[in-house]
Every structure is written in C-alpha cells, then in structure tokens.
C-alpha cells in the first residue's frame, strides 16, 4: 500500500487517483495548472522554501525577527502546501518561542536578584 502525497490517505498500489481527495497519486511532475477535484493544486516539488530556511537560521541570531519570519514562512507553506517548509517553519517557531520564554525567565530572575541585592546593600 502507498499513501496519497496530498491528503495522506492510504491508496492501492495500482491506483492512479486518490479516492479520498481526487488528486493524482503519481509521483511524476504534474501538468501545468492541473488541479485535484477538491481544488488543491499539487505541488511540483516539496522542497524547503528560502523563507522558511531564513526564518529558521534567524532564530539563532535574532529571536524576534526569526519568530516573525518563521510565522510568515509557515503561513506561506500552508498556502502552497509544502510540508517540508511547513515543518521547518514550525521548528523555527517552537525554538524561538522556547528561547524567548527562557530569556524572559532569566531576565525576571536577574531583575529580582538585583532588586533584592540593592535592598540588602
């Protein structure tokens, strides 16, 4: 058994069209402008978009900018249907959110230590 690259449902090995979504389950390049019966345009190649790569890399240098670019890349990946770009942009969002939370907690702890230290001086 194989799986549809568009909806993920299981299809027969000799199937040409997915019975669930109506998209072609062939793994060759689709014709220009071809659509599934549900209106989904099949992707030509599921690769990482440059926006999702830039967002992921920026997360490690500038958290806020990386988060914003990753969110934009995630929305673009959802619109185009690129699963690889979507997963990379989600990773950027998760990493930047965790790191921002960590930086926030450290800032609060540092502020408390400074305030308590000033009181006892």
Question: What do these coordinates show?
Answer:
- The chain has 121 residues and is mainly alpha-helical.
- It has 2 domains: 1-44, no CATH class; 45-121.
- 55% of the residues lie in helices and 3% in strands.
- It is built from 3 helices and 2 strands, in the order ββααα.
- The chain has helices at 50-59, 63-80, 83-120; strands spanning 2-3, 10-11.
- It has a two-stranded antiparallel ribbon with strand order 1-2.
- Strand 1 and strand 2 (10-11) form a beta hairpin.
- The longest helix is centred in the C-terminal third of the chain and has 38 residues, at 83-120.
- It is elongated and about 80 Å long.
- Mean pLDDT is 80; it is low at 29-33.
Descriptive tags:
elongated, mainly alpha, 2 domains
């Amino acid at each position: 058994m194989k799986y549809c690259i568009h909806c993920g449902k299981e299809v027969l090995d000799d199937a040409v069209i997915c019975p669930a979504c109506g998209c072609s389950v062939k793994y060759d390049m689709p014709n220009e402008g071809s659509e599934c019966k549900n209106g989904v345009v099949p992707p030509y190649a599921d690769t990482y978009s440059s926006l999702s790569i830039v967002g992921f890399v920026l997360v490690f240098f500038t958290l806020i900018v990386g988060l914003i670019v990753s969110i934009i890349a995630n929305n673009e990946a959802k619109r185009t249907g690129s699963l690889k770009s979507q997963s990379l942009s989600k990773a950027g969002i998760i990493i930047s959110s965790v790191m921002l939370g960590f930086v926030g907690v450290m800032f609060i702890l540092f502020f408390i230590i400074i305030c308590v230290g000033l009181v006892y001086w």
